[in-house]
Each structure stands twice: as structure tokens, then as C-alpha cells.
Design a protein that fits this description.
- The protein is of the alpha/beta class.
- It is built from seven helices and seven strands.
- β4, α6 and β5 form a beta-alpha-beta unit.
- α1 packs across α2 and α1 packs across α3.
- The longest helix has 20 residues.
- The radius of gyration is 15 Å and the shape is globular.
């Protein structure tokens, strides 16, 4: 899911940081995104400028601290394991500026429970993309118990800029 999300983010014009703890996984993700972009160009879906622009906006990072420097929005796409999600969100809160929205791409876990890992749960929302992300138009924006209206609105706007339709 992370690869697809990074793809649509970069194509939409967002400076996109791709993070993974595994250097091999990060390298494979970059390669797959490049191939997908080139395939889009070959099929006439993307121009050369769109592909080169997207590749220029995609920045791989092996350290979360580096990936989060100066970001305005975070979309988490770690495996569907609650303990891992809670640990990830606790770490995101420590490293990202307080005004940054923290979105989880979970499809089945409680966004409210994930938000319990942070001191400011209002900044946590669900942003559930459907697979394959580049082809599926729908993004489900999930309100946690304490999600702020601002976080929900920001998430919907990010999805819209990615060319997605949202449902709350």
C-alpha cells in the first residue's frame, strides 16, 4: 500500500518521503514506483514531465527522523498489527511537529485505539486507500473519537489533490 500511496502523492505534486526500516524494501519500493510511472507514461496516462516530476519529488529515507523533517502531513502504511501501529504513532508524535496530521491507512483496526498512542489524538485520522491505489478513486476518511474537524478537512483536501474521491 505504501508504494501506491507514494506514487499517487508524488504524481499529485506533493514532495513525498518514502520511509522503510529495511533498505532492501525501500529499494524495491523505489524500483516498483519507477516502473509503474514508466508504465503509465508508455500507456499514455502520464507525460514525460509528470513522470520526471514525480520521480524528483520522491525521496527515500532509511531513518524516520530524516523522513519527518519539515513534513506537513504523514500517511502511515505499516502492516496491520496494532502493537506496531501504536509504537509507530508514539514515535511519529515524538518526531513530527505538533500541527502535523497523522493519518493511518488501516483498513480494519480501530483508528480511535491507534490515536490513543499520542497525547494529541485530535491530529489522528484514518485515510484508507483501496488497492491498487493508483487505479482506485475512493479514499475512506475515518473519524476517530477525538479527530479534529481540521485534521479531517486537511485529510480530505490531501486526498482530493491526489485525485481521489472521499467518503467520511
Amino acid at each position: 500500500m505504501g508504494r501506491g500511496i507514494a506514487y499517487v502523492s508524488a504524481v499529485a505534486g506533493f514532495e513525498t518521503r518514502l520511509f522503510d526500516v529495511s533498505a532492501g524494501a525501500l529499494e524495491r519500493a523505489q524500483g516498483q514506483i519507477r516502473r509503474d510511472l514508466e508504465e503509465g507514461q508508455a500507456r499514455g496516462k502520464l507525460s514525460f514531465e509528470q513522470v520526471s516530476g514525480a520521480l524528483g519529488r520522491l525521496q527515500p529515507h532509511g531513518q524516520l527522523e530524516d523522513a519527518l523533517q519539515g513534513v506537513d502531513f504523514v500517511i502511515e502504511a505499516v502492516p496491520e498489527d496494532m502493537r506496531l501501529k501504536l509504537d509507530t504513532f508514539a514515535r511519529l508524535e515524538q518526531l513530527a511537529r505538533p500541527e502535523v496530521v497523522l493519518a493511518t491507512n488501516t483498513s480494519a483496526l480501530s483508528v480511535t485505539e491507534i490515536a490513543s498512542a499520542v497525547k494529541q489524538p485530535g491530529r489522528v485520522v484514518g485515510m484508507h486507500f483501496f488497492n491498487p491505489v493508483p487505479k482506485m478513486k475512493l479514499v475512506e476518511v475515518v473519524r476517530a473519537l477525538e479527530s479534529s474537524e481540521q485534521a479531517l478537512a486537511t485529510t480530505a483536501e490531501v486526498a482530493r489533490r491526489m485525485g481521489k474521491e472521499t467518503v467520511l
